[in-house]
Design a protein that fits this description.
mainly alpha, 14 helices, single chain
């Protein structure tokens, strides 16, 4: 899109925004969604780059998660371990998140239109919320599992039985699905903007849904309180677990007058990866605080008077859409491929295929 074409579109959108919006139009949906998209991304030269970024993140997420899940499924030695069960649950949540969010964003970028408000919008919001909370709680349980394994190794198998493991996995999904269900129910306590058949974003994230449903206060308060509480609990459990593991490792090295550098590096590595994992949620909490400072009434007035998206809201929306695809890309690398046993399980099919080709080649040589 050239600068002249962008200026022409901007003039058309300004002209459309000043007209009577109650007048019936055949192309009203296309005009509104196209103008809203232009207000989100006024620079058309960035759109191809964004398409490539989202496509590459999606393909990489599907590749590493799929290969890790395939390798873990083929390994009988790892199937009984609780950490592997939690890892499989984390991969499943990441795949749900990728399949739900990425195609919608890519489609909107290709079509250069914001997302239409339909049944798929509710599905995306429900599944996206459930998968994000499931990933967050699963990572918390993985930290607790490592704490029990390192600090209470003698009682590890007694405390973490297969029955308790299944109960923990079930509770993770009950908690996540319950939050999604309550969020959807509370959204309908607001006044839906029925005249607007398109949203003001590329995906149906919380701010977009609440804006379209008339900013229901109950939904916003519940989402912010539950999200912040869950995030805080995850951080506290993670810090407690890894701090205790580091203390035990350091105490084991004190009699030898040595410093456990390996333990320190491991703790710093996992804390850094946790920050990347929680970056979208931290970013969302910060944006929620900003919106609370600005005031919901100001947002309602702004959205009702303008046919465009505020610049700050556009930047927050695009940044959140990109960061939501980062955790599914790094989780298999951090919690799966970094482990030597998981790497062997992942490479076993390739080793079997190589050995089979070698045997076939030797048979051919003998003939």
């Amino acid at each position: 899109m050239t600068a002249i074409e962008a200026n022409n579109l901007t003039e058309q959108c300004d002209w459309f925004g000043q007209e009577n919006r109650t007048e019936a139009r055949v192309t009203e949906r296309l005009d509104v969604s196209g103008c809203l998209f232009l207000s989100l991304l006024p620079n058309g030269q960035t759109i191809p780059a964004l398409i490539w970024i989202f496509v590459l993140l999606t393909l990489f997420s599907l590749l590493v998660n799929g290969l890790t899940l395939f390798g873990l499924g083929r390994s009988e030695d790892l199937s009984w371990e609780p950490r592997v069960a939690f890892l499989k649950n984390l991969i499943f949540s990441d795949l749900m998140q990728t399949f739900t969010l990425a195609p919608a964003v890519i489609h909107s970028l290709v079509q250069r239109q914001t997302m239409a408000f339909s049944t798929w919008c509710y599905i995306q919001y429900f599944v996206g919320t459930a998968s994000i909370f499931s990933s967050l709680v699963t990572i918390t349980c993985m930290a607790l599992e490592r704490y029990l394994y390192v600090c209470h190794a003698i009682h590890y198998l007694v405390m973490l039985t297969q029955v308790r493991l299944r109960v923990a996995l079930s509770l993770i999904w009950v908690y996540s699905v319950s939050i999604s269900t309550i969020n959807i129910a509370l959204l309908h306590t607001g006044k839906e903007q029925k005249s607007e058949r398109v949203t003001r974003g590329l995906l149906c994230e919380p701010d977009t849904m609440e804006q379209h449903m008339g900013f229901p206060r109950a939904s916003a308060v519940f989402r912010k309180v539950v999200g912040s509480s869950t995030l805080l609990l995850c951080l506290l459990v993670y810090v407690f677990s890894f701090l205790r593991m580091y203390q035990d490792a350091r105490n084991a090295m004190i009699p030898f007058n040595a410093v456990n550098n390996a333990a320190r590096k491991t703790v710093l590595f996992y804390c850094g990866m946790l920050f990347l994992q929680l970056l979208p949620l931290l970013f969302k909490v910060i944006s929620d605080v900003i919106w609370e400072v600005e005031g919901t009434a100001a947002m309602v007035a702004l959205s009702s008077q303008s046919q465009s998206v505020p610049k700050a809201a556009a930047v927050l929306h695009m940044s959140l859409a990109a960061m939501l695809l980062v955790p599914p890309c790094i989780n298999p690398l951090v919690y799966g491929l970094r482990n030597a046993e998981t790497r062997r399980a992942l490479l076993s099919p390739f080793q079997w295929w190589t050995q089979r080709r070698g045997r076939c080649a030797r048979r051919e040589a003998r003939r």
